[in-house]
């Protein structure tokens, strides 16, 4: 069982509330989303594992069970071309849960006309393989978002 924790502080809102049909329709995979606190902060690894994909606006960490978790920092933020994002690790690095992966500022993303909402997605998972899915309420970085069997 993989425990996936929040990469950010904010409010859990669930994938259905994400203003992007690819995420809200769970086409990428099941999970939840965080409406982050509007202050510059690090986005943390939600699991222990290896960074297999790393972009300024998104990263994937795969744990020892082969579970890949996508953290997407904001919606349509790829269009910002890395502006306002700072990578703290490299692709291929082994990271621990709670380790900073990308430093960013949700308020700056919002000021640039993009949504700062952050999907946290279990890649290649089925909806029934997730337990205890947090889709409402305040969360701190490191709080459990869901379990993955």
UniProtKB/TrEMBL annotation:
User: Is Transferase among the key words of this record?
Assistant: yes
- PTS EIIA type-1 domain mapped to chain residues: 20-124
Q: Which domain of life is it from?
A: Bacteria
Q: What is this protein called?
A: PTS glucose transporter subunit IIA
Keywords, in A-Z order: Kinase, Phosphotransferase system, Sugar transport, Transferase, Transport
Entry's InterPro entries? Answer: Dup_hybrid_motif, PTS_EIIA_1_perm, PTS_EIIA_component
The primary site where this protein sits is cytoplasm
Molecular function, one GO term: kinase activity
Name where it's found: Cytoplasm
Q: Name one GO biological process term.
A: phosphoenolpyruvate-dependent sugar phosphotransferase system
GO CC annotation, single: cytoplasm
């Amino acid at each position: 069982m993989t425990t996936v924790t929040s990469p950010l502080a904010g409010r859990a809102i669930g994938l259905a509330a994400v203003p992007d049909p690819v995420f809200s329709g769970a086409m990428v995979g099941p999970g939840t989303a965080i409406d982050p606190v509007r202050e510059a902060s690090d986005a943390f690894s939600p699991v222990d594992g290896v960074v297999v994909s790393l972009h300024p606006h998104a990263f994937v960490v795969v744990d020892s069970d082969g579970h890949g978790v996508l953290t997407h920092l904001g919606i349509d933020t790829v269009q910002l071309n890395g502006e306002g994002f700072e990578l703290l690790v490299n692709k291929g690095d082994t990271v621990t849960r709670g380790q900073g992966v990308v430093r960013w500022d949700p308020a700056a993303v919002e000021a640039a006309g993009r949504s700062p909402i952050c999907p946290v997605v279990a890649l290649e998972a089925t909806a029934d393989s997730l337990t205890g899915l947090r889709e409402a309420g305040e969360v701190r970085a490191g709080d459990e978002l869901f379990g993955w069997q």
